[in-house]
Write a structure and sequence with these properties.
Helix 6 packs parallel to helix 8 and helix 12 packs antiparallel against helix 13. This protein is 41% helix and 13% strand. The longest helix has 18 residues. It is α/β, with parallel strands linked by helices. It has 3 domains: 68 residues, no CATH class; 271 residues, no CATH class; 96 residues, Serine Threonine Protein Phosphatase 5, Tetratricopeptide repeat (Alpha Horseshoe).
């Protein structure tokens, strides 16, 4: 029975995703750029080059400002021009014979040994506004978009068009947006895929490649958290649609996907455990569960929060979103350095399809999901990172062979894919019963409890959640399990006292829990029902003090 179900689901995995294994790019296709005024920047460059086996001659040090923001003139003189000359001198790109013909509009590059550029910690982030820049045709651009400031990543991506006259004011529609052919993303077609290894510290920047390699080896696992605003009409619907598509991708490909449709972001008290993906909007600074307790990012995790200035700085661990997410352990992210307006932000739905379904590299997916270039998006992470490089059945077999505890997540994906293909919860309960790893996995025991609830058997669910709590869950998974226990006990007539004990355990285990008021509001009627007078008094006093 077990083997038959396993084969069924592994087939489903192939049907739900691209069965074609994409060619894995290697370090020979990357140029690594660092600030030779910064020892930290050089160390990050050398670290990445060693990990990804980038040829030494493809590390390029430039004399750059240490500030995150530079002028347009400094960008040209210190970064764009020297990098262009270095690429030509090292024959990493070659030009067309007619590259200088002003009448031509096609890319300047004839051949390219590289497709990716990595900007290392210490390389400036953004270009400031040039007040005296006057360009023809600017009056045809919508007034809010008549700006010439930009993210360096997005501007530098058009380096292969160097000999062409490119408008600097406003965004340029990307011809690569939505592409299903990763090979099109090439300097010979006018695009250099630029990402950066950056963040609040040198060590954080170095860690981005370590975590990417770990996820490539063992898989990108965890749960997918989606924070929608439930917008069904109007100009902001596009943002919700993009994030909604991302949720459909992670759900249909087997990740446990939790969707919040309330207008506000996830509450601070939400037990966001074992994060593989986070897509949300629209707070100015990092908020919600990320501001309470340890953030449980899994190795390889991607997180994105849509906000106009989410990457105003990437070197702050407290301001905006990108820097704080990196400081909390995310492996890959994106953000905007200046006001992009919604249509100029990353289409994370298309990004998710390309990255997870079509098995693109991180940079390929990011640029396939970018509606515009020469604008405000910065892409942070290892550009070669390809978490879906192995087919599901290959990954599953490897984890089993190595007795890797991450096998629990592969089993969870098997269950979710079967459920998506209309397999009954009863059959999945049988699958878990016959899976040896279920006995030692808090993740699988929690899923077993969820399945019993689907079958309307709360007491069996309670047993599974109790077992899960005995199997060393993470801190926030433990909190979720305790709340699940309490809710089930609350619905059983003679178990009010047991529910009280569970809530008291939450209170004592999590003294800094952000919503103690809500906890006492749940606890009070249960304590009254169970005739626990001392607890009743405790709740009343606590609720009287609430603000």
């Amino acid at each position: 029975m077990l083997q038959r179900l396993l084969k069924l689901l592994l087939l489903s995995a192939l049907l739900c995703g691209s069965g074609r294994v994409m060619r894995a790019d290697d370090g020979s296709e990357v140029v690594v750029v660092y600030n030779n005024r910064s020892a930290e920047s050089k160390r990050v460059a050398e670290y990445y080059a060693e990990k990804r086996q980038v040829p030494k001659e493809q590390l390029i040090g430039l004399h750059l400002s240490k500030e995150e923001i530079i002028t347009r003139d400094d960008y040209r003189k210190e970064l764009e021009e020297p990098l262009w000359k270095a690429l030509l001198a090292k024959k990493l790109i070659t030009l067309r014979d007619d590259a200088d013909d002003a009448k031509l509009t096609m890319p300047s590059v004839a051949t390219a040994k590289i497709r990716y550029a990595v900007l290392c910690y210490g390389v400036p982030l953004k270009i400031s506004k040039q007040a005296d820049l006057n360009e023809a045709g600017v009056d045809q651009i919508p007034a809010p978009l008549r700006e010439n400031y930009a993210a360096i990543d997005s501007e530098l991506a058009l380096l292969p068009m160097k000999t062409r006259t490119m408008r600097l004011t406003g965004p340029l529609n990307s011809p690569f947006y939505g592409t299903t052919n990763a090979a099109q993303l090439n300097p010979t077609n006018g695009l250099l895929m630029v990402t950066r290894l950056d963040g609040p510290s040198e060590d954080i920047a170095k860690g981005l490649v370590d975590k990417a390699l770990e996820a490539e080896r063992d898989g990108l696992w965890g749960r997918s958290y989606i924070d929608l605003r439930n917008i069904n009409e109007g100009q902001y619907k596009q943002g919700d649609d993009w994030i909604k598509l991302a949720s459909e991708v992670t759900s249909k490909l087997g990740w446990e996907t939790i969707v919040d449709k309330k207008p506000e972001t996830f509450p601070r008290s939400f037990p966001m455990s074992q994060i593989g993906f986070y897509f949300g909007w629209y707070d100015g600074n990092i908020s919600g569960p990320f501001t309470w307790g340890e953030t449980e990012f899994m190795p390889g995790a991607f997180a994105y929060h849509l906000h106009s200035f989410s990457a105003d700085s990437v070197r702050s661990a407290t301001q905006n979103w990108v820097g704080p997410l990196l400081a909390r352990g995310v492996t890959a992210t994106m953000g905007c350095v200046y006001e992009p307006y919604l249509g100029g932000t990353p289409d994370v739905g298309t990004f998710a399809v390309r990255w997870l379904h079509n098995r693109f590299s991180f940079a390929e997916a990011a640029y396939a999901g970018s509606p515009v270039l020469s604008w405000q998006t910065t892409v942070i992470g290892d550009p070669l990172y390809r978490p879906m490089g192995k087919l599901p059945q290959v990954r599953h077999a490897e984890l089993l062979t190595k007795n890797n505890p991450l096998i629990e997540w592969s089993h969870l994906k098997i269950i979710n894919l079967n459920l998506a293909n209309k397999t009954s919860p009863t059959m999945m309960i049988t699958y878990l019963a016959q899976t040896p790893e279920t006995r030692t996995s808090s993740v699988l025991q929690e899923k077993l409890g969820d399945l019993w609830l689907l079958e309307k058997k709360p007491e069996d669910a309670l047993k599974a959640y109790t077992t899960a709590l005995d199997l060393k869950p993470t801190k926030k998974q433990q909190l979720r399990l305790l709340f699940a226990q309490a809710e089930i006990l609350d619905g059983i007539d003679d178990k009010a006292g047991d529910a009280v004990d569970v809530y008291l355990k939450i209170e004592s285990t999590y003294p800094d829990y952000p919503d103690m008021t809500g906890l006492y509001q749940k606890l009070l009627p249960l304590a009254q029902k169970a005739k626990r007078d001392e607890v009743v008094e405790k709740c009343k006093k606590a609720l009287e003090k609430k603000p």
